[in-house]
Every structure is written in C-alpha cells, then in structure tokens.
Prior knowledge:
The structure is a single chain. This protein has one domain: 3-Layer(aba) Sandwich (Rossmann fold), CATH 3.40.50.150. The chain is built from 9 helices and 11 strands. It has helices at residues 3-22, 35-39, 48-67, 77-89, 106-114, 128-137, 149-153, 176-185, 240-248; strands at residues 27-29, 95-100, 119-125, 143-146, 163-167, 190-199, 206-213, 230-239, 251-258, 263-267, 270-283. Strands 1, 2, 3, 4, 5, 6, 7, 8, 9, 10 and 11 form an 11-stranded mixed β-sheet that branches. Strand 2, helix 5 and strand 3 (119-125) form a beta-alpha-beta unit. The protein binds S-adenosylmethionine.
Amino acid sequence: xxxxxxxxxxxxxxLLRRILKQTDHVRRFPRxxxxxxxxxxxxxxxxxDITQMVSRKAVQLRQxxxxxxxxxxxxxxxxxxxxxxxxxxxxxxxxxxxxxxGACGANFFILGHVLPGLIGKWNVVETAGMAMEGRRxxxxxxxxxxxxxxxxxxxxADQRPNLVLASGVLQYLPNGAQALQSWTDTRADWIYLTRxxxxxxCAKPVFTAQTTRISDxxxxxxxxxxxxxxxxxxxxxxxxxxxxxxxxxxxxxxxxFEEERDETTRIGPCLVRTITxxxxxxxx
Length: 284
Ligand SMILES: C[S@@+](CC[C@H](N)C(=O)[O-])C[C@H]1O[C@@H](n2cnc3c(N)ncnc32)[C@H](O)[C@@H]1O
C-alpha cells in the first residue's frame, strides 16, 4: 500500500470515529409499521403491574399531601406550570376538567391541594384497567373515572368542560389525530397538552415502543427501595405540524411551553428530531 493510501485510510477511520462519537448519545428505538404492530408483543398501558404501581404511588401521594398544613409545598417546574395554567383559565366558577390519561388522579390531588377551590369537577378518561382501579380506590367528591370520553362528557351538550388536559398521553394513543379531533369536538374552552413528545421533522406518525421500569410509573418515587421489573409500551411520535394544524382549526395557541431539550432519536432507520412540549389552546 502506498503512503497516500495509508493516509487516506487513517483519515477515513478518524472521520468514522468522529461521526460515531457524535451519534453516541442518540437513543435507539425499534420502528413499527403501525400502532397495532407495536402493541402486538406488549401489554402496553393495560399492564396490571403498572396499574398497581401507579395506584400505590397515588395512595402515597394523597397521604403525603394530607400531612401538610396551611403551608403548601410546591416542587418541580411541571407543577408550577400546571398551577399557572389552572389559574389562567379560572374565571371565577369552579372548573370542569377532563383529564385524558390522568392515571389515578395525581394531577387532581396535587392541583386541588395547592389551589383549593378552583376545581368543580375532574373527570379522568383512562384505559379500562386504570379507570376501574381509579373508581375502586380514588373516586370521591369531584374526582370520577371513565374509560371513554363520551361518558366523561355526560349526556348533554351544555355540560361543555372548561378544560381538556392531556398530560404525557398523546404519544401513547393509537390514533393521535383522531384523539385531538375528539378533544376539539368537546368545544371545551381550553385544551392543554403537556409532556407531549412530538416529531419536528416528520410528516407522518412514527410508531415505536419504549421499555420502562415499572417503578418509574406513577407520581414520584416509590417509598420502599424495592426493585421491580420492566414493561413495554407502544409509542407514537406524532408530527408537530399536524398536531398544531388540527388544534388550530377551532383553537388558538396562547402559550407554548418548552419543557425539555430537543433530542435526536433513532427510530429504526430514521433519525427523528423529537421535542417535548406543552401547549395551551383557547377556543376561538
Ligand atoms: C405517562 S402516563 C401520564 C400520566 C399522567 N397524565 C401524568 O401526567 O403524570 C400515560 C397515561 O396514559 C394512559 N393511557 C394510555 N393509553 C390510553 C388510552 N387509550 N386512553 C386513555 N388513557 C391512556 C396510561 O394508562 C397512563 O396513565
């Protein structure tokens, strides 16, 4: 091999090393054709272990909140952001809220505690298993659990909710566009999406699945240091542009919350630029 060739090979190796180093931090996920394909081999959010973990943590959270006196302890940017939103949409009358994917009601417990008197009705829409657990252990006063939106809305059109809240849920629904449309169809005064993972550089939904520790589900840390297994949930990166387009048909965005740093994620062969954001939309 002559010297020039050796030099070329060395610089090529160096270049390759540099590229690999640059993409070292890129998280890798599998890619599926559809939500059904991603669900096929996982229990998803219907996993009983997740439901039980979330339920135990919600009990823990409720007990911890009950211990506090008049002084309210507020921790974390997410709670402060949620408090801001609730205060912003409050017009003097107790709010009627639909909380899609609201698990066992953690956001109701926290916000009801730090902002007493603002909530009139809090209807959680959840998977069948989580809704059943919610009804069994947590349903009381303004807090109710349903497994579909129509039931949560009630029988008459004049019971329009003030707010539809979807926190960390859009990316777990089989059809994000359909879900968004159903939320705008409620004609709620406000729609608040938060902890929402969206694709900034994709035109169509990208289907994947995430593996999580069961102990990471539910509000806050687990009191005991026990270890638990892992679970897997189908996940969809919905295109940012399409989401905003659907909402903008009958709502306008008042606040955009930049919640986490943008990331590049490798899903199958594609590099997807994901953002985790929040949006507060007002009905026009
Ligand atoms: C990441 S957790 C977010 C929980 C809570 N909203 C929060 O912000 O902490 C996602 C939630 O979405 C719920 N979920 C998943 N699929 C759903 C579906 N098809 N309909 C309603 N909720 C669903 C899960 O059961 C889970 O409670």
